[in-house]
């Protein structure tokens, strides 16, 4: 490869190009920025712009020879049926609760790996909890169906130890969905938390202990404030992930507790899909979710700065 | 006091059990000698594991997933690498803006990202299908490629490149002989991570595939239809394959990254 390049150097086109790159700042800027600009345009800017435009269409696709009728009706339809508003509010409440539960479950795990376990075993322990996340959402949902079904593993175990009243209805409700979602998202909480906790200097904790601070005080006044960035990042990631879940709520949740992303998906997936309505709903969901997370991040970062 | 010392390791191993138990139970279900999923298992069979390998739909879906994964991975790395270079060269507000725009797809709800791509692809006159799925998966994985390459790029000093320039190397030769070899562990890692990400992606495949079904889409469709031990068998096989691949990739990249580190610090004499 290098030899080929050295060979190529003798030719004036190559030299012209590298000279141009080396001498002209404008050429350098153009060459460097062309890929990012095209990619952002083709994957984010244009698709989102199209979606915004479509959300104001009366119908889509527009038939040949017809002109576009602009309307706000798609946004208005969000408020017309209580079904949509309920699913929307439920999504936000549910995602908030699940995010908090994930934090509660994962924090001790991350703390154990980052601070308590012997340093030499950290990578191996981390790998142990990361490995199951190489499995797809659908397979993991299926694994929980096998666990929680009426004749699944848990019920079979319960009746084996002589629990009366088995089988218990474990599947297709908020609890089964929560268990499945924590199973799906805990890695996204674990990695930022681990990164933040690992940075805390052991000497600080030791000094606090020497000065007589009991465990809970060390936790509340040192560990928690110093891991704030990890908590904020992990919670934001998990929340955005949960708010966008499409498949798992259909597989593990009940028919009565649909989430808004599933509603949007179904508007598109069904026959006679209403693209404008789905687009409008997508924009409502995205805008609200990003604003919600942005507010959360802003509040916690300001509070942290005020203290420092 | 002793009890307290046991609490954290206890919680940790409980969490590990929570992560692994469902997967083992699912694998066991694949050995049930019956047409439906239920416990306890009275008689065991390996027929589901062999039968599923002869299922044409399943094999076609797996093959499609594999092709899509390769296409989208090549695209992601080919695009992610120059983007990482561009980000590394900017600074200040431009850098923040660029990073925000590149990471945005990773923070949008996946359904929304998939649907906006579906609208866009239709708008510019392209069809759903293999190419569309591969493009969609690349949209999802490029942010990760950029982050991985950028992290590695940030640890690279300017000395090597400057020394090479003083010795008469031009930009292209510096890129090929110094920068790319230094980045190779990150690139390999990104490559393997993209393959896994693409193979798992359900939502984008579902909305961009049209009539083509990748493996997760096929599995989803069949699960809604009803489940049988055959699904547990194929899921287990795929699980073993992806986890094995992930473990192998992780080791491979870590070893390479250590080796390239030591070769740089000790000076690459015998090259």
Automatic annotation (TrEMBL), chain A:
Does the keyword Transmembrane helix belong to this entry? yes
**Where is the protein found, in the record's own terms?**
Cell membrane
Source domain of life is Bacteria
Does Transmembrane helix show up as a keyword for this record? yes
The cross-references to SUPFAM superfamilies, in alphabetical order and at most eight, read: MetI-like (SSF161098)
The residue ranges crossing the membrane are: 20-41, 92-113, 125-150, 170-191, 230-248, 280-300
According to the entry, every stretch annotated as the ABC transmembrane type-1 domain falls at 88-296
Q: Which InterPro entries match?
A: MetI-like, MetI-like_sf
**Pfam annotation, one family:** BPD_transp_1
Q: According to its UniProt record, where is this protein mainly located?
A: membrane
| Assigned keywords, A-Z | Cell membrane, Membrane, Transmembrane, Transmembrane helix, Transport
Where, if anywhere, are coiled coils annotated?
none
Q: Which PROSITE patterns match?
A: ABC_TM1 (PS50928)
As for membrane topology, the entry says: Multi-pass membrane protein
What is stated as this protein's family in its record?
Belongs to the binding-protein-dependent transport system permease family. CysTW subfamily.
- Would you tell me the protein name for this molecule? ABC transporter permease
Question: Which organism does this record belong to?
Answer: Nitratireductor kimnyeongensis
TrEMBL record, chain B:
Q: Which topology term describes how it sits in the membrane?
A: Multi-pass membrane protein
Q: Where are the transmembrane segments?
A: 12-31, 61-85, 97-121, 133-153, 174-199, 230-249
Gene3D superfamilies according to UniProt: MetI-like (1.10.3720.10)
The protein's UniProt keywords, in alphabetical order, are: Cell membrane, Membrane, Transmembrane, Transmembrane helix, Transport
SUPFAM superfamilies, per this entry? MetI-like (SSF161098)
Where does the record say this protein resides?
Cell membrane
InterPro entries given in the database record:
Bact_Polyamine_Transport, MetI-like, MetI-like_sf
The keyword rRNA-binding is assigned to this record: no
Q: Which PROSITE patterns match?
A: ABC_TM1 (PS50928)
Q: Which domain of life is it from?
A: Bacteria
- Domain ABC transmembrane type-1 spans what residues? 62-249
Q: Which PANTHER family match?
A: PUTRESCINE TRANSPORT SYSTEM PERMEASE PROTEIN POTI
Q: Which family does it belong to?
A: Belongs to the binding-protein-dependent transport system permease family. CysTW subfamily.
Can you say what this protein is called?
ABC transporter permease
Q: What is the lineage of its organism?
A: Bacteria, Pseudomonadati, Pseudomonadota, Alphaproteobacteria, Hyphomicrobiales
């Amino acid at each position: 490869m290098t030899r080929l390049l050295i060979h190529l150097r003798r030719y004036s086109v190559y030299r012209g190009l590298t000279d141009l790159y080396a001498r002209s700042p404008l050429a350098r800027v153009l060459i460097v920025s062309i890929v990012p600009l095209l990619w952002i345009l083709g994957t984010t800017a244009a698709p989102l712009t199209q979606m915004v435009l479509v959300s104001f269409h009366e119908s889509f696709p527009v038939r040949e020879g017809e002109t576009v009728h602009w309307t706000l009706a798609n946004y208005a339809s969000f408020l017309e049926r209580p079904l949509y508003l309920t699913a929307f509010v439920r999504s936000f409440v549910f995602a908030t609760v699940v995010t908090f539960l994930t934090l509660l479950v994962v924090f001790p795990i991350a703390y154990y790996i980052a601070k308590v376990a012997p340093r030499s075993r950290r990578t191996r322990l981390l790998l142990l909890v990361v490995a199951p996340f190489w499995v797809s959402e659908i397979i993991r949902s299926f694994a929980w169906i096998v666990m929680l079904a009426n004749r699944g593993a848990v019920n079979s175990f319960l009746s084996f130890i002589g629990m009366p009243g088995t089988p218990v209805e474990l599947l297709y409700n908020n609890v089964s969905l929560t268990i499945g979602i924590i199973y799906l998202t805990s890695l996204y909480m674990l990695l930022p938390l681990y990164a933040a906790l690992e940075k805390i200097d052991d000497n600080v904790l030791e000094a606090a202990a020497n000065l007589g601070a009991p465990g809970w005080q060390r936790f509340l006044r040192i560990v928690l404030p110093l891991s704030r960035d990890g908590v904020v990042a992990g919670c934001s990631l998990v929340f955005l992930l949960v708010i966008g879940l499409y498949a798992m709520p259909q597989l593990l949740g009940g028919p009565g507790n649909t989430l808004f992303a599933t509603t949007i998906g179904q508007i598109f997936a069904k026959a006679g899909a209403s693209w404008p309505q789905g687009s409008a709903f997508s924009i409502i969901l995205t805008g609200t979710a990003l604003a919600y997370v942005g507010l959360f991040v802003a509040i916690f970062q300001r509070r942290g700065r005020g203290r420092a | 006091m002793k009890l307290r010392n046991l609490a954290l390791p206890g919680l940790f191993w409980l969490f590990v059990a929570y992560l692994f138990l469902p997967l083992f139970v699912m694998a066991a279900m694949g050995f049930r000698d019956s047409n439906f999923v239920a416990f306890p298992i009275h008689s065991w069979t390996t027929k589901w594991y062999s039968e599923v390998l002869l299922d044409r739909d399943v094999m076609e879906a797996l093959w499609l997933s594999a092709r899509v994964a390769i296409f989208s991975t090549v695209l992601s790395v080919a695009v992610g690498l120059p983007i990482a270079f561009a980000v590394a060269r900017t600074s200040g507000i431009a850098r923040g803006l660029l990073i925000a725009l590149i990471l945005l797809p990773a923070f949008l709800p996946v359904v929304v990202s998939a649907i906006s791509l579906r609208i866009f692809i239709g708008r510019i006159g392209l069809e759903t299908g293999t190419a569309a799925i591969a493009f969609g998966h690349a949209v999802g994985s490029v942010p990760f490629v950029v982050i991985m390459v950028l992290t590695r790029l940030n640890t690279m000093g300017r000395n090597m490149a400057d020394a090479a320039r003083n010795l008469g190397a031009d930009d292209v030769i510096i890129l090929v002989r110094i920068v790319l070899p230094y980045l190779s562990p990150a690139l390999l890692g990104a490559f393997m991570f993209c393959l896994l990400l693409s193979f798992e992606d359900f939502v984008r495949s579902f909305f961009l595939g049209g009539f083509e079904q990748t493996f997760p889409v096929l599995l989803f469709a069949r699960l809604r239809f009803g489940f049988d031990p055959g699904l547990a068998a194929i899921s287990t096989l795929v699980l073993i394959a992806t986890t094995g691949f992930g473990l192998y990739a992780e080791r491979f990249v870590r070893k390479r990254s250590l080796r390239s580190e030591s070769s740089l610090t000790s000076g690459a004499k015998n090259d």
